[in-house]
Amino acid sequence: NVIAQATLLKYDGRMPHRIIQDAMMRLFGLKISPATILDLTRRAADAVQSEYDAILKKIRGAPILYVDETSIHVQGERHWIWTFSTPSESFFVIRKSRGMKVLTEVLTRRFKGIIVCDGWKPYARFTNRIQRCWAHLLRESKELSGKFAEAVPLHNALKELYDSLTKALESDPPPEVRRYLCYLAREALRNWIRKEYSAEKVRKFIGKINNGFDYWFTFIINPGVEPTNNRAERALRPHVVLRKILGTLRNDKGTSIHERIMTTLATWGQRGLNSLQMLTEKLAS
Predict the structure, then answer these.
(1) What is the pLDDT, as a whole number, of residue 243?
(2) Rounded mean pLDDT, 215-241
(3) Mean of the per-residue pLDDT values of the chain
(4) Does residue 29 come out as left (phi exceeding 0), alpha (psi in the -120 to 50 range) or beta?
């Protein structure tokens, strides 16, 4: 119970060690040191190792996977925390690389699913089964429309295209309708790409759209694929909060603990399971 409570206070409650010390004394009359708290979380991470491995296996076999990454510091050096998410699992690793080798390590070359992601180049080098994130696209076009008049109709057209497609897909149309919608969408987007733009930033934005042209409409043809990467971004938010609280992970041991605990807690949460009960059972088994 002590191990589970200390672990949840840190990773679910997002408390620094000093606050955990105070809470354990106040709630249970236990006087423990920061080093002890670290050791308790290590024991919890060891207890969920089999769960962590099982989640990795699920991720590698997922037909649709939402992937994203954000920076995190280990011993003061920049690393990247990667999330690989489905509706029922979230898997996290922390690596020094932001490149394709992390995708290959985690997913292996046997991965056959569709990846929903932003426009970071390693994804397209890893697979051609991609859905690019429309939320990123529309945020960037909206920002440009606030600076350049010629980007206003472009942003409005992209938003209208996105809204019309998501509305049309609400009824889950048959494959032939989906193929026709995809044809119309590609033609509409191609027309806007072909226009002349004077502002360099707008031209660069058009270049981004064009470079990922084949990846904007995967969600039309493939039922179940979401057009945005919001699922992966939501999975990373607790880590962003922890990053602000912790500042930097101290060593490889802390990194490994973070990966295993955050993976299992996130997955249990997605599955509607009680984290305290699940963790206590793992520790007792």
Answers:
(1) 78
(2) 94
(3) 94
(4) left
User: Rg for the chain (alpha carbons), in Å?
Assistant: 22
For residue 112, count CB atoms less than 10 angstroms from its CB and return exposed for 0-12, middle for 13-18, buried for 19 or more.
exposed
Please say whether the beta carbons of 260 and 50 come within 8 A.
no
Mean pLDDT of 78-92: 96
Does the structure show a pLDDT above 80 at 24? yes
Residues making up the chain, counted from first to last:
285
> Can you tell me which residue has the tokens 């019309």?
164
* Residues 255 and 246 sit within 8 Å (Cβ to Cβ): no
CA 266 vs CA 59, 120, 162, 198, 256: distances in Å: 14, 24, 30, 46, 16
Instruction: Find out whether 91 and 111 touch, Cβ atoms under 8 Å.
Output: no
Say if pTM beats, i.e. exceeds, 0.85: yes
Q: What is the 3-state secondary structure (H, E, C) of the chain?
A: CHHHHHHHHHHCCCCCHHHHHHHHHHHHCCCCCHHHHHHHHHHHHHHCHHHHHHHHHHHHCCCEEEEEEEEEEECCEEEEEEEEECCCCEEEEEECCCCHHHHHHHHCCCCCCEEEECCCHHHHHHCCCEEECHHHHHHHHHHHHCCCCCHHHHHHHHHHHHHHHHHHHCCCCCHHHHHHHHHHHHHHHHHHHCCCCCCHHHHHHHHHHHHCHHHCCHHHHCCCCCCCCHHHHHHHHHHHHHHHHHCCECCHHHHHHHHHHHHHHHHHHHCCCCHHHHHHHHHHC
Question: Taking 80 as the threshold, does the pLDDT of residue 247 lie above it?
Answer: no
Banded model confidence at residue 174, pLDDT cuts 50, 70, 90? very high
Yes or no: say if 86 and 117 are a contact pair by the CB < 8 Å rule.
no
